[in-house]
Amino acid sequence: MSTQSRIIAHVDLDYFFAQVEELLNPELVGKPVVVCVYSGRTAESGVVSSATYAARRYGVRAGMPIARAKKLLQGVEAILLPLRREVYQNFSEKVMDTLRREVDTVEVESVDEAFADGTRWTGGDWRKAFQLGQVIKARVLSETGLRCTVGIGPNKVVAKIASDSAKPDGLKIVPPSEVSSFLKPLKCEALPGVGPKLAARLASIGVKTLDQLSALEIEPLSQLVGHKTAQYLRLASRGEYEEQVKEKKERKQIGRIITLKNDTREVDEIVDQLEEPLASLAEAAARLGVVARGVGIIGITTRLETVTRARSFDTPLSFEELHEIVRTLFVSLLTELSDVVLRRAGVRLFALERPTHQTRLTAFNADKVYELG
Ligand code: TTP
Ligand code: MG
Ligand code: MG
What we know:
Layout: E1 8-13, H1 16-24, E2 33-38, E3 46-51, H2 53-56, H3 66-72, E4 79-82, H4 85-102, E5 105-110, E6 113-117, H5 119-122, H6 129-144, E7 148-153, H7 156-165, E8 171-173, H8 179-183, H9 196-203, H10 210-215, H11 218-225, H12 227-237, E9 253-264, H13 267-273, H14 275-288, E10 291-301, E11 306-312, H15 319-336, E12 342-353, H16 360-365
Parallel strand pairs: 2-4, 7-8
Antiparallel strand pairs: 1-6, 1-7, 2-3, 5-6, 9-12, 10-11, 10-12
Helix pairs in contact: 4-6, 4-14, 11-12, 13-15
């Protein structure tokens, strides 16, 4: 298939961390919600990680100091929440698994975005691109409860700019015939990789729009920003930067890690709290259509050391077996390391493989849906 006929989707979750908080607590819906990374130095030090659109209306943005966000939200009934990385990571993995089941190739770009090659899905027919976007949005919503924005274009750069332009809860298709008119009026910062510094440098020679950027000769541009960047800018500004959608790496393992309710070395306490992560892992395996022959545990100690144990087997494990092995591994770990106290604990499944017939692991999950939280 020629490069011209590729149909690439870029999927980005809307106000991701804050949306997850909304999903887990419907009372928050529509309110200014701000997810914060508290640095711990003072009660207020840290930055905003994600903000709902209701909070953005007051000017709150990711990366802004918490104190500044509080000032902007003075007198407003706003909710500031601490970041819960594991919770968002679990949702992220569910979204990526959903995409993987829909299209052949998914390139995970960040915790909340991915490129999906929809060329096969659409048969290369741009009339089906809108339907592809609708299906992706509907599947992500029905399987995870999350809303996203999808941009579709003939390459990754155009697809990403398209999704940026359609936020939130949007769908924007830019077929090859519209690439030029779509890109031309945009500011240089619209290109992925062009931050304020590079934009200022381009502005210093009077280049502010992609139309102007695409008209520049490669020589003066190279002198200004270096050869490699110049080549990227020239191609990207014309919508001609082609880069394949690639799975970054094959999934050799899946894992979940949690922060324990309190520091402990009690196996029962640890395994109890790993109940839900284990169920979620078994479900993730089932959704990926794989079974595991290996299981490992990980502990982060109160001294922030990482300790691990793992075992692999000749045949895929059932959910009950996983449970038992996890317990056994924690018993042996904590017996051997008599002075460690765990702060975080996790489980990973490895030696993932396609089952030859349905196993107990997948059967266990067939009719069960787990709530994360
Ligand atoms: P983004 O996709 O950039 O932002 P978003 O999903 O919150 O909002 P949008 O609707 O505009 O897509 O980033 C994804 C997540 O990454 C975000 O929810 C939180 C995290 N993040 C940070 O922690 N710090 C940051 O500065 C940014 C930009 C994101
Ligand atoms: Mg996002
Ligand atoms: Mg993003």
